[in-house]
Structures are given as C-alpha cells and as structure tokens.
C-alpha cells in the first residue's frame, strides 16, 4: 500500500496548466489515479471534458504519454496499445512494466462507448478503464446520459410543465461490468482521495481488465459552488446515492459503510439541477429517489462479503 509520504515524490502526471472549470473533479480523478501507479503510465482519453480541457492544440497538460481517440472507442484504442506493448515486450524491444489507463466520461462509457468497453472487458486486456462520471454529456451541452439520475434537469430532459427532469433512474454500469467476470471493479468518489488512491493502486496490482467508476461532481452541469465539489462527492456516499464498494474476483465488499444513511434531500439540495424537485407537487419524485436509493443500498448490504459473480 502506497504511503501518504510517498505520493508527493512521484512524478506529477498532470500539470496545473489545464483549462478545466474551477472546481472540476475530472483533473482530480486523473491525477489521483495515475499517482497510484508505481510504474510509468500510458493514457488514452475519449473525447470529453478531460480531453478538451487538457489538450487544446498545440498545448498539453499531460506529463505522460497521451493518446486522444474518438468519443466511443477509448477502451478499444487502449486494447490495441496494450497488445502492441505486449508484442514488443515479447520481442525484447521494451523492458520494464508499464500500466495502461483509459479514461472516459459517462457519455463515452455508459452509452456510445459501451460496446467498446464491454469488448475490452470480455477479452480481458491488461488495462484499467476509469469512468469520470459527471452524470451527463457535460462537454456538449448537458444532455442526459445513461448515468443521469432520476429527476435531474438536463437540456434533453428538462424540468418544465410536462416533465420534471429525467424520468428513468440511472443504469448500474458498475454491476454490469462486474458481470463480465473481470478481476476487479470498484466505485469511488472525488472527495475521498484515500479510497480512490487505494482502489486505483489495487487495480494496477491486478493483471487483467479492471474498471473504476468514479462519481465526479460537475459544478457547471450540477450547478453548485465550485468549492463544494469534494463535499458533494462525500454526501453521495453518506446518503447512499453513490455507494463506495469494490468487487474483487467476484466478492463484493462495501468500503465505506455509514451507520445510518442521511436523507437524499441533503445531497439533492446542494445542486440546482434538482431545484425543481423541491417545488410543491414534486414530493413524490424525491420519495421515489429515496426508495430506490434504499432498495439498491439494501441489496449491497445483503451481499457484502459474498461471492456475487
């Protein structure tokens, strides 16, 4: 396990000269994950907030080898990079160990990149895929994605007279990827750097396909004060909205277990994307969110410590 004292001595993977919004969690995710690697890292990033804000031509904020690919094929591109590395290493043209990380937002992971991701996981390439999950297509105008929560206001499912934000609940991609029988899958947050670092470090230590789903509050699309990013991430765990857990070799383990979940309203009230839910007549939607949160949390609790895949 990497020590706190050791992290500052590692090479900074991402310089401060990027153009992410104030309070953006994506650079925090990228930096924390890569710092967890004891070996050199190669990065592939799908089109999205992280790529756009860190690689505006002719500049780059990356201090690692970096490859930008299309919106939908980050996992496929990294699969090819890993295959090339393994071939060159077998021929003796490369020495030493290199870790490979593919980044994608929820749009490029849950939706248009899912086929690519599923294929890479099923084939078992030795890579780590990290979804920085800001729960909508933030880079292209805050459109809803498969990760967008029930009731959230987006430009394609807006809150208005007919509807009150997104109708459906977000799909559980972490469990879907775990069902691919990969050796390691985990959820974490921006706001708990120890948890995120440890999970990334564990992922790097395991051979095969790994997946990290990191909740990344977006101060633009979620509409909150930029200094509250980490606090909102922690509230997501404390309310059960985004449980912190891992599945290693099919065994589920909750890594942060609140003694009692806080009401979801505490999380929702922090963000203007849910502001309409607190108008008279929308109480039922909040109740539905609370009930679904309780249901999913109850399933996790009942399976904690058990082999589920």
Automatic annotation (TrEMBL):
Segments forming domain Thiamine pyrophosphate enzyme TPP-binding: 47-214
Source taxon at top rank: Bacteria
MF-aspect GO terms: oxidoreductase activity; thiamine pyrophosphate binding
Keywords of this entry: Oxidoreductase, Pyruvate
CDD domains, alphabetized: TPP_PFOR_porB_like
InterPro entries linked: PorB-like, THDP-binding, TPP_enzyme_TPP-bd
Name of one Pfam family that matches: TPP_enzyme_C
The protein, known as: Pyruvate ferredoxin oxidoreductase
Organism per entry: candidate division WOR-1 bacterium RIFOXYB2_FULL_37_13
Lineage: Bacteria, Bacillati, Saganbacteria
């Amino acid at each position: 396990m990497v020590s706190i004292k050791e992290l500052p001595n590692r090479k900074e993977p991402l310089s401060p000269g990027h153009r992410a919004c104030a309070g953006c969690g994506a650079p925090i995710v990228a930096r924390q994950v890569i710092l967890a690697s004891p070996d050199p890292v190669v990065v592939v990033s799908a089109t999205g907030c992280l790529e756009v804000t860190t690689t505006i031509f002719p500049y780059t904020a990356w201090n690692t080898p970096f490859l930008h690919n299309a919106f939908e094929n980050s996992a496929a591109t990294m699969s090819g990079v890993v295959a090339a590395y393994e071939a060159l290493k077998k021929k003796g043209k490369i020495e030493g160990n290199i870790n490979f990380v593919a980044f994608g937002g929820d749009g490029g992971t849950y939706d248009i990149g899912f086929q690519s991701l599923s294929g890479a996981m099923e084939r078992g390439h030795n890579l780590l895929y990290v979804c920085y999950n800001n729960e909508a297509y933030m880079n292209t105008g805050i459109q809803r994605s498969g990760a967008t929560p029930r009731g959230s206001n987006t430009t394609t499912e807006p809150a208005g007279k007919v509807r009150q934000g997104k109708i459906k609940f977000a799909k559980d991609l972490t469990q879907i990827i775990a069902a691919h029988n990969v050796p390691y899958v985990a959820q974490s947050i921006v706001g708990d750097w120890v948890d995120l670092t440890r999970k990334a470090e564990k992922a790097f230590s395991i051979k095969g396909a790994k997946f990290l789903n990191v909740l990344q509050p977006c101060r633009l699309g979620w509409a909150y004060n930029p200094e509250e990013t980490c606090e909102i991430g922690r509230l997501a765990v404390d309310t059960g909205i985004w449980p912190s857990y891992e599945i290693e070799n099919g065994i589920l383990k909750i890594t942060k277990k609140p003694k009692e979940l806080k009401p979801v309203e505490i999380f929702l009230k922090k963000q203007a994307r849910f502001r309409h839910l607190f108008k008279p007549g929308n109480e039922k939607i909040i109740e539905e969110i609370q009930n679904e949160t309780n249901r999913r949390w109850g399933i996790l609790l009942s399976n904690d410590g058990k082999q589920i895949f």
